[in-house]
Write a structure and sequence with these properties.
By secondary structure, the protein is of the alpha/beta class. It has a single domain, classed as P-loop containing nucleotide triphosphate hydrolases (Rossmann fold). Helix content is about 35%, strand content about 25%. It contains seven helices and ten strands. It has a six-stranded mixed sheet, sandwiched between helices. It has a four-stranded antiparallel sheet with strand order 2-1-4-5, covered by helices on one side. It starts with a strand and ends with a strand.
Length: about 230
């Protein structure tokens, strides 16, 4: 399998209020089409690792390579373009624009990227909403949608530019168990049917056990990377 993401001797420090070594000698590879979960107790460094791997945090030591390119080697404008085109994000809180429609929210990253005409982008956005089973909600403002529907819209938004990898930070954390499993199954289907690569932070063992691989952190170190 082709590597999408790789770290070499990754270390991360916080310096305020005191120096703290949060990520320690992380060597990790994520492969195309893989659905992997980062797990571990609170304070183990899961979200910090996700933010570094996704280029949201570039204050680290060592290397983070995306398609063999080191994030820190890129000027800010090139990194912003790469992030918009090749990286998708799904968070615990969906961060949708409440007064916009579901369709408008999904289209926004594509409008920013500017590679498709408006009509082509709208067509692609409708395809993503249909893929996620909510195309009938496209013209509704998202503040009128249920929590599960809103999170599906956020998944569609993450997919709109057809990224190489999607990073998920507790994507089901605000959902009830039924909707959590629905969203999880949607993510898993993306890896199976479309070879999408997904890296997810979760506290939910019932979900992480159903991914391809669990990357377990403890005190900032990888202590296990077992396949499921």
């Amino acid at each position: 399998m082709k590597k999408v993401l790789e770290t070499k001797e990754l270390n991360k420090y916080f310096y305020t209020p005191v120096e703290f070594h949060v990520l320690k000698e992380i060597n990790l590879s994520i492969y195309s089409g893989e659905f992997a979960a980062i797990v571990g107790p609170s304070g183990s460094g899961k979200s910090t690792l996700l933010y570094v791997l996704s280029s949201l945090d570039r204050e680290y030591e060592g290397q983070v390579l995306f398609n063999d390119v080191e994030f820190k080697s890129l000027p800010n404008h090139e990194l912003a373009h790469l992030r918009n085109k090749s990286i998708g994000f799904i968070f615990q809180f969906h961060y949708l624009l409440a007064d916009f429609t579901a369709l408008d929210n999904v289209m926004l990253p594509g409008l920013k990227l500017g590679e498709l005409t408006h009509d082509d982008l709208e067509h692609r956005a409708m395809q993503k909403l249909e893929l996620l089973g909510i195309s009938d909600q496209a013209t509704k403002r998202v503040n009128r949608l249920s929590g599960g529907q809103q999170q599906r819209v956020s998944v569609a938004r993450a997919l709109i530019n057809e990224p190489r990898i999607i990073f998920c930070d507790e994507p089901t954390g605000n959902l009830d168990s039924k909707n959590a499993m629905n969203v999880f199954n949607l993510l898993k289907n993306l890896t199976r049917e479309f070879d999408q690569t997904i890296l997810m932070v979760t506290h939910d063992d019932s979900l992480s056990s159903k991914t391809d691989r669990q990357i377990q952190l403890l005190d900032g170190k990888i202590i296990d990377r077992s396949e499921n």
